[in-house]
Please model this.
Amino acid sequence: MITNKLKKKIPLYFLLAMIFFPIMGYAKTEIGHNQNHDIAPIHLVEATVLFDEIYDINISEGHFRVSAELMMTWDGNTDQFLSEFGDAIIHGKKLELFLEKTWHPEFIISNAENPRTSHYKTLDVINGKFELFERFEADLSVDAIMPRYPFGELDLYMEMAAFSGNQHLMRWKPVNLFIGHDDAHHVVVKGNWEVQKTTLEETTRSSLNHGGKERFSYLISHVKVTHNAVTALQKILLPLSSIILLSLAVNHLVSATSLSNTLNRELSGDYGINVAVQITLFLVIPALKFSLASEMPSTHYLNFTDAAFILTTVIVALNLILGITSLNRAVNGRIEQSLKIEGYSKIVSPSITVIGFVLVLYLTAVNGGH
Model:
């Protein structure tokens, strides 16, 4: 009897176990991550980042270049430095020899395409703390995610990963992020971009070292930029809207037939103008896209500019097909059919243009979640 009851309850126990243990595992993971932020490292390195130049922003290939400065400050035994150099600032060979026998923060730029090029480093002691300064250049990769290109923000981020110790030994402490020196009057972000927001944050990430159990500190700078509104207008919106409006205007105003008298219509002497204009506009579209290819992001989703090019191509292609069909009927003496097709196109083409534009806005808004 007891055995039968137990057998009936076994599936229930099994189901409870399947639910309970994953919850426990998830809770442990979350607690572990929270505890990582409370760890007091041996060396807490205060970091200030300054970008002297941000240039060669290429969103089609997903990379950009920076010239930057980094100031790292940390507590340590400064007696040896003060006894050897006093209040002097050391660099070059003296700096290299001193750093070989003293702990100091070391890092790589994890999203760099190549190792950074260091121009110079200096070290001194200020208020009982070491100050290590470095000026460097780096080629960085970037996630060129701009669903509403040429509108929207592009995040130009730089990830500096500490490798001179795990999070127990070293942690970054973000202090400040600057875009250029106050007394240097030059444009820091090159090209048709404007800085909207900057942030500097620290996080920890796991590494393959020690079986993947160790976590290391990352200093991540974010420089969010947007395209200049005038540039977006003159390079993309104005040309595409002009092509659509010209195609619709020619389709509406130019007919394959003309009045021979007050009652009858016949094949117009300018019957080929509509088709010729539509063909020209159709060939202009890929030429325009090719000229902008280096400035457009390569994405796996549909962005605003891609959708606008598709809409323009569809409208011009539709007007071209209707124009050729109407011309064919007129040339073969079917004047009434030609007139019906032209009247149909004057309603359908503008309607599809409006519907298509609304669809473009909707699709790019949906992709805005990327």
About this structure: Helices lie at 2-37, 79-85, 92-100, 229-253, 273-291, 304-331, 335-367. The mean pLDDT is 82. The chain is about 40% helix and 30% strand. The longest strand covers residues 43-58.
